[in-house]
Design goal:
By secondary structure, the protein is an alpha+beta fold. It is 32% helix and 25% strand. The chain has helices at 11-23, 33-44, 97-109, 125-133, and strands at 2-5, 51-56, 62-73, 78-88, 115-118. The N and C termini lie far apart (39 Å).
């Protein structure tokens, strides 16, 4: 298994996986492909606000991806990574790739993070069990959003 940063050559495979992610029920809404393309462009252009990683299975095959962004948390007492998206292709699920990602994303990011935060749909029980095995705990407050 391997975790590596996106390269320009990952565009097509990322867009395919990202579309699957947003149509799988793992997210509350479906986003336009243009938004996925914009995120990919920001990642490969080196934006300090977003990072993207390809999850490779043994043998180097692309098995999934993850998107993160760093932020400072006063409540957490330091730099955190928001685990924005984690996706593993159906053919590679139940092979511990999600665990591999969670165990290696701090080192891959190269940032001195103190913790992680993520969102999860209430019905995504498999992901919830994975996150709980890795020490994630639910927060007692809800979220709100305003998109401009």
């Amino acid at each position: 298994m391997n975790l590596r940063k996106f390269t320009e050559g990952d565009r097509a495979v990322f867009l395919s996986m990202c579309e699957d992610f947003y149509h799988s029920g793992a997210a509350d809404t479906v986003i336009p492909v243009s938004q996925m393309e914009s995120s990919f462009d920001q990642i490969v252009q080196g934006s300090p606000y977003i990072q993207g990683y390809i999850i490779e299975a043994d043998g180097g095959n692309c098995a999934g991806y993850g998107i993160v962004f760093p932020y400072y948390s006063n409540e957490g007492g330091g730099l955190f990574l928001m685990l924005e998206e984690i996706y593993v292709k159906p053919a590679y699920r139940s092979q511990k790739l999600g665990s591999f990602y969670l165990e290696n994303i701090k080192e891959a990011s190269g940032l001195p993070v103190k913790g992680f935060k993520l969102e999860i749909c209430k019905h995504n029980d498999g992901a919830r069990r994975l996150y709980e095995r890795h020490g994630f705990q639910p927060l007692a407050y809800g979220e709100m959003i305003r998109v401009l």
